[in-house]
Design goal:
By secondary structure, the chain is an alpha/beta fold. It folds into two domains: about 130 residues, Four Helix Bundle (Hemerythrin (Met), subunit A), CATH 1.20.120; about 230 residues, Rossmann fold (3-Layer(aba) Sandwich). It contains 13 helices and 18 strands. A seven-stranded mixed beta sheet has the order 8-7-6-9-12-17-18, sandwiched between helices. Strands 13-10-11-16 form a four-stranded mixed beta sheet, with helices on one face. Its EC number is 5.3.1.23. It comes from Roseibium algae. Keywords: Amino-acid biosynthesis, Isomerase, Methionine biosynthesis. This is Methylthioribose-1-phosphate isomerase.
Length: about 375
């Protein structure tokens, strides 16, 4: 997508053909910085500290982490150790395990001397396929937006609410929830996005707003608790969010606060869609509330916030009363009954097991 008019992916090989470049997402919206990854340890750090984040991008980064590990040691023990280290970085997003399983399945059976070249080839393929998948999600979701646009007065915008960042910064390119928005905007359909700030890390205010602005998409940042109010006053035409893990029955795990948006949408009769690649579906799980592990992150993310002061300096300050205990669950689960539809690369599905299995019989037959 575009950064100051120049096209970027979120992850790419350096000119030397082996190191990996990523965009440091902890620096947004105050700086655009590129980091060079040269080791497995640097890749583990980048995922854990959320220099890269978003389920599809985490998976792609992990694949390149295996590549970097293979530069040092191509033995079975090194391969398994690298996979284990990467898998421990983030527990909720299933794309991480999906990508690592693909790498292990391809690399373990072949001669160790062939592993590094094969690893890079497969990691490149994962990235290219992510872009193609997101483009398909965009086209399928754009049809939903176009249908809503036809019901509105000529020139009126389709108002879309989103939560967290499921944009191109969360994938290799295009995004999941944002792909239909970008394609609609580019095709001339007037759209406007309500961007939830998404506390505590402010991925909406920091990331989604930044990338929408770079692409010229009209948007308004709102506090997390404003969505229900806007829906009550008919200022939201549909909700589109992403997901870090979706069960085979259609339960959706996404950034904390998503469940509340789904409840408000249900009460107000607003369509609630989830955009996702099939790699985010965990076919081994059926009950999201009981089976999806919810990452508990540091309370410091809640206690502190970073921003630009009046003098222009970037400062981090504390905003919670001293001595107060802080909890920081990073995700929640939205039951399938609250989901209008799942926007996937193979069409818009009902959020139930039969619809998902019918669309992805190959994924059901294969290990996750």
């Amino acid at each position: 997508m575009l950064v100051n008019g120049e096209k970027y992916r979120t992850i790419w090989l350096a000119e030397d053909g082996w190191a990996v470049h990523i965009i440091d997402q902890t620096r947004f919206p105050y700086a655009f910085e590129i980091i060079r990854l040269e080791t497995l340890q640097q890749t583990v750090h980048a995922i854990r500290e959320m220099q890269v984040r978003g389920a599809p991008l985490i998976g792609a980064t992990a694949a390149y982490g295996i590549c970097l590990a293979m530069r040092d040691d191509t033995s079975d023990s090194a391969l398994m150790g690298a996979s284990a280290a990467l898998l421990e970085t983030r527990p909720t997003a299933v794309n991480l395990k999906w990508a690592l399983d693909l790498m292990l399945k391809a690399l373990l059976p072949i001669d160790p001397e062939q592993r590094m070249a094969r690893a890079y080839s497969l990691a490149n393929q994962i990235c290219d396929e992510d872009i193609a998948t997101n483009m398909a999600i965009g086209l399928n979701g754009a049809e939903i937006i176009a249908n809503i646009a036809r019901t509105k007065k000529p020139g009126s915008s389709v108002n879309i609410l989103t939560h967290c960042n499921a944009g191109w910064l969360a994938t290799v390119d295009w995004g999941t929830a944002t792909a239909p928005i970008y394609m609609s905007h580019d095709s001339g359909v007037p759209v406007h996005v309500w961007v939830d700030e998404t506390r505590p890390r402010n991925q909406g205010a920091f990331l989604t707003a930044w990338e929408l602005g770079q692409h010229g998409v009209p948007h308004t940042v709102i506090v997390d608790n404003a969505g229900g109010h806007l829906m009550q006053h008919e200022e939201v035409d549909l909700v589109i969010v992403g997901t870090d893990r979706t069960t085979s029955s259609g339960d959706v795990c996404n950034k904390i606060g998503t469940y509340l948006k789904a409840l408000a949408a249900k009460d107000c009769g607003v369509p609630f869609y989830v955009a996702l690649p099939s790699s985010t579906i965990d076919f081994t799980l059926q009950d999201g509330l009981k089976e999806i592990p919810i990452e508990e992150r540091s309370g410091d993310e809640v206690k502190r916030i970073t921003g630009r002061s009046k003098t222009g300096s970037i400062e981090t300050i504390e905003i919670v009363a001293q001595g107060s205990h802080v909890a920081n669950p990073a995700f929640d689960v939205t039951p399938a009954r609250l989901v209008t539809g799942l926007i996937t690369e193979r069409g818009v599905l009902e959020a139930n097991r039969q619809s998902i299995i019918t669309a992805f019989p190959d994924r059901v037959a294969a290990p996750n």
